[in-house]
Amino acid sequence: MDYKVNDYEIIYMVRENDDMARNRMIQKYLPIIKRIAIDYYQQFKVYGAELDDFIQEGMIAFNKAIDTYNENKNIKFYTFSILCVRRRLITFCRNISSNKNQILNNSIRDENIYLNLKEDFKEEFLQKEIFIKLKNSLKMKFSLVFELRYNGFSYEEIARLLDIPLSTVDSRISIIKSNLHKLKEKTT
């Protein structure tokens, strides 16, 4: 008979300084922590943080949850740990999106990437099939940026019109350019 150790037994072993038990608990909850981190990352990646930053914050919260869990409070460890992870990620998101970070978030990385999209890809746009494939492959949020940039709007104007940070416009244009290069390579 295969006996499975439950969370409470593992927490007891962790409190007895059993590092293998802590690793076992982390491995069990890591997929859940990653899923939560990905959800927050999707909403806040425009502020420049990486997915690994979100996962790291989630892991810090989870380790703290293991250390501070009180089984006498009549709450399941799973619920407590997920609540700790979510609260830590909310605080992290609040910090990266605060006004004090706006200068960094809206900074211009490189002047060369702000060249007019039409000028950058003049010969590619002459090939109508590549243009149509690119336009059809873009999600709505990218398509809007593409249309505005293609029609000569500046990055600042696009950011103002779509009510998004300048850094988001920059990253979306970079992704569009990357997609265009991939499409061009496929057709040649």
- Tell me what the CATH architecture of the largest domain is: Up-down Bundle
Largest sheet: none
Continuous helix count? 11
Q: How large is the share of residues in beta strands?
A: under 5%
The total beta strand count reads: 0
Can you offer a commentary on this structure?
- It is a single chain.
- This protein starts with 6 loop residues before the first helix and ends with a helix.
- The longest helix has 26 residues, at 19-44.
- The chain is built from eleven helices and no strands.
- α8 (128-137) packs across α11 (166-187), α9 packs across α11 and α10 crosses α11.
- Helices cover 73% and strands 0% of the residues.
- The radius of gyration is 23 Å and the shape is elongated.
- It folds into two domains: 7-101, Four Helix Bundle (Hemerythrin (Met), subunit A), CATH 1.20.120.1810; 106-187, Arc Repressor Mutant, subunit A (Orthogonal Bundle).
- The chain is an all-alpha fold.
